[in-house]
Design a protein that fits this description.
The complex is a heterodimer of chains A (189) and B (182).
Chain A: H1 2-25, E1 51-53, E2 59-61, E3 69-75, H2 80-96, E4 101-107, H3 113-122, E5 125-127, E6 131-133, E7 139-141, H4 144-149, E8 158-162, E9 168-173, H5 178-188
Helix pairs in contact in A: 2-5
Chain B: H1 2-23, E1 34-40, E2 45-46, E3 50-59, E4 64-66, E5 79-82, E6 88-90, E7 99-103, E8 106-113, E9 116-125, E10 132-142, E11 144-145, E12 154-165
Parallel strand pairs in B: 2-12
Antiparallel strand pairs in B: 1-3, 3-9, 4-8, 4-11, 5-10, 6-9, 7-8, 10-12
Classes of the chains: A alpha/beta (189), B mainly beta (182).
């Protein structure tokens, strides 16, 4: 009887562990259409440094923003919830940039600059109380490596708030809550 | 012995409990959102016969993919393409219209596919089509979102297997539930 119970427990453990590792195995790369699971177990771990090209082909490092509060926003032009956030991000950039804050948009479109640059140059967004505005914050072209450096993503949009001293303070998968993220930014300024 | 059993059982239970949160991810990978299967309207088909391929997309509950006629140019539509081997010709893919739904992230309804949709591809086996079991590779592309998050676009391979008989009298209708008018 005890032996049977032990075997049953062992079998359950093996199944759960197999599911756990199978799940990890399906979340290995952006190009494969799946995104690595994020690790939220340690919310204040250091933000990884990365170097990506902006729309002028210039290298942008995350470390060059050290001393500022940075909201890294992973987005794509085809992603509707990402588009919903853009006016809010524009507003946050307007409101907080003078206090040492910036949004850093990481565009994840497969086609890269060829689709992101025209979007950024032409698309205007209704900003609350401020009429229409272009994206007013720096945009870089993302890749699989930067996603890996952030421990993978569940989906788009994903926003990571980084403190002045380079720590990951908050991570939100999906549409941000304006009030929640504004409060978090203000607490860091 | 009892103590040893209890210790081993406790360790195993600890492993199970530790693994549980990560074994139940909130958001699946894009490839786990749609389960596509291809069906053929004739089994076997025959040289000279026209038949259809149906790609049945089963879409995970709570998720949607953009319809082929997506609501905006910037959205990634669902498409399927056939990589035809010699001896086969394809017609234009017939896509379902889709349904308008509103989601938490948009006030404007979007034309999407949910639950289960069937894409149909008309195929003709030419008189010189190879006989026996043939594979028609299909590429299905879709981009899925739920109410909060979008997953990256994905291209998946779907295999349609068709058996071609030399004699047209050998052709038999199959999967009538998917091909009512065939």
């Amino acid at each position: 009887m005890k032996k049977t119970a032990l075997i049953a427990i062992a079998a359950i453990a093996v199944i759960v562990l197999a599911a756990h590792y199978a799940d990890k195995a399906t979340r290995l790369s952006v190009s494969g259409g799946s995104l690595k699971k994020s690790d939220n177990s340690d919310p204040v771990k250091p933000a990884p440094d990365f170097t990506l090209k902006d729309l002028d082909g210039k290298n942008i490092n995350l470390s060059q923003y050290r001393g500022k509060v940075v909201l890294v926003n992973f987005w794509a032009t085809w992603c509707d919830p990402c588009r919903v956030e853009i006016p809010w991000l524009i507003e946050m950039q307007q409101k907080y940039s003078a206090k040492g804050f910036t949004v850093l948009g990481v565009a994840m479109d497969e086609e890269g600059k060829s689709v992101v640059a025209p979007f950024v140059q032409k698309e205007q967004f209704e900003v609350d109380g401020g009429g229409k505005s272009l994206m007013n914050y720096p945009i870089v072209i993302g890749d699989e490596q930067v996603v890996d450096k952030f421990g993978g993503l569940f989906g788009y949009p994903t926003s990571v708030l980084i403190s002045r001293d380079g720590k990951q303070i908050k991570r939100i998968t999906g549409l941000i809550s304006y009030d929640e993220i504004a409060k978090a930014i203000e607490s860091q300024l | 012995v009892k103590l040893a059993v209890a210790i081993v059982a406790s360790i195993l239970l600890f492993i199970v409990l530790a693994a549980l949160p990560s074994a139940q991810p909130q958001i699946p990978a894009a490839r786990d959102v749609v389960s596509p299967t291809a069906y053929v309207s004739l089994e076997p088909a025959a040289r000279g016969a026209s038949f259809q391929l149906a790609v049945v997309m089963k879409i995970r509950n709570g998720f949607h993919v953009n319809a082929h006629q997506a609501s905006a140019d910037y959205l990634i539509p669902t498409t399927v393409t056939a990589e035809l081997p010699a001896g086969f010709k394809a017609g234009e893919v017939v896509y379902p219209k889709g349904e308008l739904h509103t989601f938490a992230f948009t006030k404007t309804p979007l034309n999407v596919y949910q639950d289960k949709v069937i894409l149909r591809i008309p195929i003709t086996a030419q008189p010189d089509a190879p006989t026996g079991t043939q594979h028609i590779p299909l590429k299905l592309r879709y981009q899925a979102c739920n109410n909060e998050v979008c997953l990256p676009p994905l291209k998946v391979d779907v295999d349609a297997t068709v058996t071609v008989a030399a004699n047209s009298s050998a052709a038999r209708p199959a999967h009538a539930e998917l091909f009512p008018a065939h």
